[in-house]
Automatic annotation (TrEMBL):
Coiled-coil region: none
Active site: 252
Protein's name according to its UniProt entry: Succinate-semialdehyde dehydrogenase (NADP(+))
GO molecular function terms listed in the Swiss-Prot or TrEMBL record: succinate-semialdehyde dehydrogenase (NAD+) activity
One GO process term, biological-process aspect: gamma-aminobutyric acid catabolic process
InterPro entries recorded: Ald_DH/histidinol_DH (IPR016161), Ald_DH_C (IPR016163), Ald_DH_CS_CYS (IPR016160), Ald_DH_CS_GLU (IPR029510), Ald_DH_N (IPR016162), Aldehyde_DH_dom (IPR015590), Aldehyde_DH_Superfamily (IPR050740)
Family per similarity comment: Belongs to the aldehyde dehydrogenase family.
Keywords: Oxidoreductase
Highest taxon in the source lineage: Bacteria
Length: 485
């Protein structure tokens, strides 16, 4: 790629203007190792300028009618859909996922933006029956103020939309920092947002040093809200630092999602859904399946179906035709996958397919790992206790509903869980007893604009999606009015 093309995203957005810096952060393609672009290496100064702009813009933006704010969002969504194919190529180049997945992600991003454009019009208040004559009690919902948004690398387009859309729809102004591995798509999305004529300072983008940018926002009292998606370790650090000013937090953190398949399940349907979920984005999905719990009566039959599908998955660069599994994000991710498989093998697991890094031919310069299925897995193995974030599917056999429920809940995480059964009573029992923020029964799709996405325990606090996601960016104000005589 020529220097001119590499530099087309080499800018931040602060107060409605492009900001370029003398130093830059290189972005590489995880499938080839080639540099695909660069962005400014911003720090404390740029982070402070972004908050200055957002704080100044907040009063005017918050007072705009919801319908007016919705207009900017709807136009932003239209521009994303219009340029979907170009944006998908950029997303794939820096993140690695197959082009079809990148296109779907951009369609999903536009869907979230459209939904919140409409939901912002429904931020209703309340009138409550009073306790005394001439008293009136009202509840108002008002934007919290400047919101700092920090997005991850695994879904770098979707997460910009899932955070920015409800923040702007609620009447907040925003400052956003994308992950250092995948900042290009965030810049490209912001370019299109600015094309809508959005008032200066309503949305600001800073790329660069995570500690300097995040630290500045955490220490600035004008930032009243932090929304972060990433690791549990970093989320805990944010909680500690946000406590100094009692900032509001939304944290979508790590997961250890089980899928539980009972003897009465439709095994073909279960196997198809499990493989589709487990190997989407090369397994780099926070609500992706981590452990497959198969009842001992059907474990062999289910395993056979899963392995047959996994062996036919095509691995390669996301730009290649018919590729279903792209590279992992970096060398550390590959090394971690190798360690998890090695640990499982040493403790008695059998590798039914995969289990190794791909290095020959076209794989030589990328971070590729063969789609893997492990059988004979026990709960003593790290692969069942830790978040995998890679294309590894461990299968654990269980004997009873009580046993598997206990196993599934014995984790500090609580993001998503999946159950396959035709028993209606069991569906309800498992849905209610599983200690997770989301449960899917006879399917593995959870992320939709109208529903609250998020976890409990060490998987985070707060929700994205639905009216719950809008409420994350709004304060509740109680007004007691006594009428004059």
């Amino acid at each position: 790629m020529t220097n001119g093309l590499q530099d087309q995203w080499n800018h931040c957005w602060i107060n409605g203007e492009k900001h370029c810096l003398p130093t830059a952060l290189d972005v590489t393609n995880p499938a080839t190792g080639e540099m695909v672009g660069r962005v400014p290496l911003g720090g404390e100064r740029e982070a402070r300028l972004a908050v200055d702009a957002a704080a100044q813009a907040f009063p005017q933006w918050a007072q705009l009618p919801a319908q007016t704010r919705a207009g900017y969002l709807m136009e932003w969504a239209e521009r994303i859909v219009r340029d979907r194919d170009v944006l998908a190529e950029l997303l794939t180049a820096e993140q690695g996922k197959p082009l079809d997945e990148a296109r779907d992600e951009l369609e999903g991003a536009a869907a979230f933006i459209r939904w919140y454009a409409e939901e912002g019009k429904r931020a209703y208040g309340e009138v409550i029956p009073a306790s005394r004559h001439q008293q009136r009690i009202m509840v108002l919902r008002q934007p919290v103020g400047v919101a700092a948004l920090i997005t991850p690398w695994n879904y770098p387009a979707a997460m910009v939309a899932r955070k920015m859309a409800p923040a702007l729809a609620a009447g907040c102004t925003a400052v956003l920092k994308p992950a250092r591995q995948t900042p290009l798509i965030a810049v490209a999305l912001f370019d299109r947002l600015m094309e809508t004529g959005l008032p200066a300072g309503a949305a600001n983008l800073v790329t660069g040093a995570a500690d300097a940018i995040g630290g500045t926002w955490l220490s600035d009292s004008r930032v009243r809200k932090i929304s972060f998606t990433g690791s549990t370790e970093v989320g805990k650090q944010l909680m500690r630092r946000a406590a100094d000013q009692v900032k509001r937090l939304s944290l979508e953190l790590g997961g250890n999602a089980p899928v539980i398949v009972f003897p009465d399940a439709d095994l073909e349907r279960a196997a198809e859904a499990i493989v589709a979920n487990k190997f989407e984005n090369a397994g780099q999905m926070c609500n992706g399946i981590n452990v497959i719990y198969a009842h001992q009566e059907i474990a062999d039959a289910l395993t056979e179906r899963i392995v047959a599908r996994v062996r036919h998955l095509r691995v390669g660069a996301g730009t290649e035709p018919c590729v279903q599994v792209g590279p992992l994000i970096d060398e550390n991710a590959v090394h971690r996958a190798e360690q998890l498989v090695a640990d499982a093998r040493e403790k008695g697991a059998r590798v039914l397919t995969g289990g190794y890094r791909l290095t020959a031919g076209a794989y030589a310069r990328g971070h590729f790992f063969a789609p893997t299925v492990l059988d004979g897995v026990t709960r003593a193995m790290a692969v069942t206790r830790e978040e995998i974030f890679g294309p590894i599917a461990p299968i654990v056999r269980f004997a009873s509903e009580e046993e598997v429920l206990r196993w599934a809940n014995e984790t500090p995480y609580g993001l998503a869980a999946y159950v396959f059964t035709r028993d209606l009573g069991r569906s309800w029992r498992m849905s209610e007893a599983l200690e997770f923020g989301m449960v899917a029964v006879n399917g593995t799709s959870l992320s939709v604009p109208q529903a609250p996405f998020g976890g409990i325990k060490e998987s985070g606090v707060g929700r994205e999606g639905g009216h719950h996601g809008l409420a994350e960016f709004m304060d509740v104000k109680y007004v007691a009015l006594t009428l004059p005589d």
